[in-house]
Amino acid sequence: MAVSKAKELGIKTVCIPSAGNAAGALAAYAARAGMEAFIFLPEDTPEINIKECLAYGSHVKLVQGNISDAAKRMNEQKKTNPGWFDVSTLKEPYRLEGKKTMGYELAEQMEWQLPDVVLYPTGGGTGLIGMWKAFDEMEQLGWIDNKRPRMISVQASGCAPIVRAYNEQKPDSLFWENAETIASGLRVPKAFADHLILDAVYKSGGSAAAVSDEEIVASVYEIARTEGLFICPEGAACFAALRHLLSRGKVTEMDRVLVFNTATGIKYPEVIKREL
To answer: What backbone phi and psi angles, to 5 degrees, belong to 159?
Structure first.
């Protein structure tokens, strides 16, 4: 959505800091649109994400640190490259419009009855915010009633600014120092739209939960071996969080629960250790 609108508006060069998957998506669509893409990634981004961007012909810059450091480097270089258009999370209006289709799809596929609970792995949080927007639009269209799922923001314990803000009932989050997690998409020390994420969580009666990397890896194995699905660490974090929420009574066995997985596990081979 973002690249299509950028092309329509005559933009020829796009740039983004990313923890991995947004970079791959931008690289692919920019290639198809005939645009030049400059992508800034942390040095320890999964190798497959880096190679994916290179394969699409993007200019890849590796930066020491996390996505915030990548954003700083990009913004420095933007000063001498005024033609670059920034498609960072919620720095332009159209990525959100693309992400909100998840809300429309889940409503349609569940026969216009929204689930009781939605668990979403939260880095930048565009998907969660987009779904919340979609629910409001569908109610205005008369497609659904005013019932909303409890929105659960899931993060890793090594980088959990939204969870900390939720626990303190704050309207926005503080920067998370020394962010570290195997789930690279969750290693966002401070989401640009943190106040919108928290607003959706609060208004829905939802919550926020953090899980350890050890729990994330265990869930990757569990889902693969019981369901035949090789999911990404970010999606696995949601399954690990669901176990905590059930034990605390935040979710019950009577609830209809929807868990979002946001990538294939094949993009994170380092999670699986060889057992010879």
So the answer is: -160, 90
Is the pLDDT assigned to residue 220 strictly greater than 70?
yes
CATH number at residue 73: 3.40.50.1100
The one-letter code for the residue type at 273 is: K
List the one residue out of 186, 185, 182 whose CA is nearest residue 159: 186
- Average pLDDT along the chain: 95
Please tell me the least confidently modeled range out of 41-50, 109-118, 155-164: 41-50
Query: C-alpha angle 32/12/95, rounded to 5°?
Result: 70
Examine the fold and report which residue of 88, 111, 141 is the final residue of a domain before the chain moves on. Answer: 88
Residue 133, judged by CB atoms within 10 A of its CB (0-12, 13-18, 19+), counts as middle
pTM (whole model) above 0.85: yes
For 216, the enclosing helix (H) or strand (E) is helix 213-227
Report CA-CA distances (Å) from 249 to 59, 238, 242, 245.
48, 16, 10, 6
Predicted pLDDT of residue 20:
78
Containing domain of residue 136, as a range?
A: 98-271
Other CB atoms within a 10 A radius of the CB of residue 123 amount to 27
Examine residue 276 and state whether it is found in any structural domain, yes or no: no
Task: State the Cα–Cα distance between residues 164 and 268, nearest whole angstrom.
Answer: 27
Handedness of CA 181, 29, 103, 115 (dihedral sign): negative
- Cα gap 114→125, rounded to integer Å: 20
Examine the domain organization and report whether 84 and 104 are in the same domain: no
